[in-house]
């Protein structure tokens, strides 16, 4: 694998966030409009769009598609403040473009009226009669839960496979819709609410404040409390959290995967057992936790080494060729001794076996003539 990582440019991040938010709002709100607000269809569509677009462009921008997610990432130490403006602008643009396209396409139905029919969020008399304070608290709670899930799934200490991150986040968004659609239409995303709300009439525009304030408050709560409750897991990015310095040049993340994107370039490639690079699960203890391999004592008396595959040899993973049990040099058989004056007595065992430090080149048994 090449050591060179192509760092996305600001324009690429902007495009990725705008495209992802567009797809989220267009398909999610479109499903709500065309299905008549069906819970399963709408909730799963919102969740699936997050999954699909996070897999598609998450390596570029992290796959936020939501100003609340961006705020939670910054306050949680995952992103510097100097990136917030780029993300917010891209997300709002994507949401508004999606709302405009839905507005235009639905006029293809004769007699369509956009007022109150754009899958906008609602509360009070304009919705199901849900009180404004209850709607505010519900959206704060739902957004906080959403951000806690996102921060946990993308935590570098999480042993879950990196590829499962977007799936968990998408399912979390779906379950949030199932629990709150009948009360507020489910926002947890200011870009989603603004994108269609501005086309849904005056009453919808007047109520937008709640669906901007509540998600941002919930995201702030989750972003600030996650490190307190569970720890950072990695050093916070300079210029993030409550440090408003904006970060230094070169502090931007270097993505390599969805999880690495969120952890500012903390790569997990070739990580083995217990976090040691290159080690494999089930590796011997001396290969874990960075312990060095034992070195021979230079002042000790050299001893003959068993052949690979025999008892006592350090490499027991390969099995030695089968040999007769009585052959000299194997475990359980004494080394052969040369007896002068006895014709036909075999020489010491093959090279590398017990009692034969030299041996002949081809390892064949030789007979020495008596002197």
What is this structure's SSE topology?
Blueprint: H1 10-34, H2 39-61, H3 67-75, H4 84-106, H5 132-153, H6 165-184, H7 190-197, H8 202-206, H9 208-230, H10 258-262
Key structural traits:
Glycerol uptake facilitator protein, water channel activity, 44% helix, mainly alpha, single chain, cell membrane
What does it look like?
This protein has helices spanning 10-34, 39-61, 67-75, 84-106, 132-153, 165-184, 190-197, 202-206, 208-230, 258-262. By secondary structure, the chain is an all-alpha fold. It has a domain at 10-262: Up-down Bundle (Glycerol uptake facilitator protein). It is a multi-pass membrane protein.
Kindly state the percentage of residues in helix: 40-55%
The class by helix and strand makeup works out as mainly alpha
CATH architecture identity of the domain at 10-262: Up-down Bundle
Determine the CATH superfamily of the domain at 10-262: Glycerol uptake facilitator protein
Oligomer: single chain
Mean of all residue-level pLDDT scores: 77
Low-confidence stretches: 246-257, 264-293, 309-314, 316-321, 338-366
What distance separates the N and C termini?
65 Å
Topology pattern, helix = H, strand = E: HHHHHHHHHH
Give the number of helices.
Answer: 10
Give the number of DSSP strands: 0
- Beta-strand percentage? under 5%
Shape: globular
User: Would you give the CATH topology of the domain at 10-262?
Assistant: Glycerol uptake facilitator protein
Largest sheet: none
CATH class of the domain at 10-262: Mainly Alpha
């Amino acid at each position: 694998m090449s050591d060179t990582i192509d760092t996305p440019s600001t324009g690429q991040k902007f495009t990725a966030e705008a495209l992802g938010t567009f797809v989220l709002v267009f398909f999610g709100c479109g499903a709500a409009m065309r299905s008549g607000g069906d819970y399963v269809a709408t909730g799963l569509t919102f969740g699936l769009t997050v999954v699909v677009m996070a897999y598609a462009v998450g390596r570029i921008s992290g796959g936020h598609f939501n100003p609340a997610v961006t705020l939670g990432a910054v306050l949680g130490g995952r992103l510097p403040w100097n990136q917030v403006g780029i993300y917010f602008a891209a997300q709002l643009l994507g949401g508004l473009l999606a709302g405009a396209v839905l507005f235009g396409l639905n006029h293809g139905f004769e007699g369509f009226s956009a007022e109150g029919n754009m899958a906008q969020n609602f509360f009070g008399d304009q919705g199901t009669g849900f009180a404004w304070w209850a709607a505010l608290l519900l959206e704060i709670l739902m957004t906080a839960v959403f951000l806690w899930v996102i921060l946990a799934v993308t935590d570098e200490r999480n042993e879950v496979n990196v590829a499962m991150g977007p799936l968990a986040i998408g399912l979390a968004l779906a379950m949030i819709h199932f629990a709150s659609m009948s009360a507020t239409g489910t926002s947890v995303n200011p870009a989603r609410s603004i994108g269609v709300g501005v086309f849904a009439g005056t009453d919808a525009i007047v109520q937008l404040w709640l669906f901007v304030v509540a998600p941002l408050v919930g995201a702030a709560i989750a972003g600030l409390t996650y490190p307190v409750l569970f720890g950072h897991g990695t050093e916070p990015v300079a210029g993030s959290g409550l440090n408003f310095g904006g970060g230094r040049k070169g502090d931007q993340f270097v993505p390599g995967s969805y999880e690495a994107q969120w952890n500012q370039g903390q790569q997990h490639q070739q990580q083995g057992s217990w976090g040691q690079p290159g080690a494999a699960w089930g590796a011997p203890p001396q290969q874990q936790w960075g312990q060095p391999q034992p070195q021979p004592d230079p002042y000790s008396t050299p001893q003959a080494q068993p052949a690979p595959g025999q008892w006592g040899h350090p490499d027991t993973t390969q099995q030695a060729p089968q040999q007769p049990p009585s052959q000299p040099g194997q475990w359980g058989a004494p080394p052969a001794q040369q007896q002068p004056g006895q014709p036909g007595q075999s020489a010491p065992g093959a090279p590398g076996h017990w009692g034969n430090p030299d041996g002949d080149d081809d390892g064949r048994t030789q007979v020495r003539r008596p002197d």
